[in-house]
Amino acid sequence: MHKLMKIHVKYFASVRDLMGTESKDLDIDKSLSVYELWKDLTAKLNVPKDVLIAVNHKYVDKDFKLNDGDEVAYFPPVTGG
Amino acid sequence: MKEKLRNKINLSDKDLLAYNKHILLEDIQTEGIEILATKHIVLIGLGGLGCPIAQYLATSGLGKLSIIDNDIIEDTNLQRQILYTSSDIGKNKVDTVEKKLKTLNSDLVIQKHNIKFSMHSSNLLKDADLVIDATDNFSTRSIINKATIKYKKPLIMGAAEKLEGQVSVFRNDLINRPCYNCLYADVDDKENSCMDQGVLSMLTGIIGNIQALESIKLLLNFGDTLESKLLLVDVKNINFRTIRISKDPKCTMCN
C-alpha cells in the first residue's frame, strides 16, 4: 500500500480555461509521474497532449515522480509572436 | 559593410537631454548610456514582438541594431505591429523599420537583412552582444537557439499567442546553463504556428517590452534578470509566474 500523497495542482493560462478551474487538491495513493497525472486528469477531455510542467516552481521532465506536498503546475507551450 | 559604433566617451549635449530620464536612474546613469552606445543587438523578427522591441531599443540609445525579417507588411499586421501604418502595406518590414527607427534615433546604426534566418546566415550573430528571438514559430526559434550556442551569445526569447506569453533569458554564452531546447525538447506538436491563432495586441506589447527590458538589464548588468528562468504571462487573468529552469543533461543541443 502506497502512502497517501497530498498534491496541489495548478492550471495556468489556456490550460486553466481547458480545465475549467485554476487549481485543485488531490490525494493520491500510488506512485505517479507528473505526465501520468496529466493523462489521468485529462482522460475524458479533448485537450492538446502538449503541456509543460513545473513542480514547486521548477521546470521538470514529464517522467518526474510526484512527492507528498508537491505543487504541480501545468502550462501551455507558446511559440507564436 | 562595416559601420563604426559610436565612441562611448563622446556623449553630446543632445544625448544628455535625450537620455535624461534614464541618466537620472541610479542603475543606468551617464555611464550606462555610454555603454549602451557601444552595444550591438541582433533582433530576429519584426512582428508583434519585434516592433515594440525595436522601438524601445532605438530610443534607449543603443549603438547598433541588426534587424532580420523577410516579411512584407499586411493589413492583418497593423492591429499589433505598432511601427507600421496603412501606407506601409506591401512594403518590406526591414526597410520600413529602418526608416521609423531613424526618425526616433538618427545616431542608431542599423543593419537590415531581408532574409529568413537560418544556420546559413548565423554568422550575422558573430559580433552581437546579445540576440533577441521575436519570431513566431518553433523551427526558427530552434535554429536561433542553435546559432546562439554556436556563437556563444545570450538569447532573449519571447513568445505570445492568444492571451498567454513567455519570456526567458538563455545564457548561451556561458557553459552549464539551460538552453531553449532544454525547455522545449519534450513538446511534440511544435508547429502550432500563430498563423491560425488569435493574439491580443496588448500582449505582444507586454512581452516585447519585457524582452527589451531584459536586454538592457543584461547589457548594463543591473537587477535580477530572467536568466535560467521562464516567465509565464496570462493576461486574461492578469497572472504572472516565474519558474526556474535547469540544464537538461540529456539535451541534444547544448551538451
CATH topology annotation of chain B:
Rossmann fold
Strand order of the largest sheet of chain A: 2-1-5-3-4
How many individual domains of chain A?
Answer: 1
Shape of chain A: globular
Largest sheet of chain A: 5 strands, mixed
The total of beta strands of chain A comes to 5
Which blocks of ≥5 consecutive residues of chain A have pLDDT under 50?
Answer: none
CATH class of chain B: Alpha Beta
Q: Give the oligomer, counting copies of the same chain as homo and different chains as hetero.
A: heterodimer
Word description of this protein:
The complex is a heterodimer of chains A (81) and B (255). Chain A is of the alpha+beta class and 81 residues long. Chain A has a single domain (5-75), classed as Beta-grasp domain (Ubiquitin-like (UB roll), Roll). Chain A has two helices and five strands. Chain A has helices spanning 14-19, 34-41; strands at 5-11, 23-28, 52-55, 58-59, 71-75. In chain A, strand 3 and strand 4 (58-59) form a beta hairpin. The radius of gyration of chain A is 12 Å and the shape is globular. The model of chain A has no long low-confidence stretch (mean pLDDT 94). With 255 residues, chain B is an alpha/beta fold. Chain B has a single domain, classed as Rossmann fold, CATH 3.40.50.720. In chain B, strands 3-2-1-4-5-6-7-8 form an eight-stranded mixed beta sheet, with helices on both faces. At the A-B interface, helix 1 and strand 4 of A face strand 5, strand 6, strand 7 and strand 8 of B.
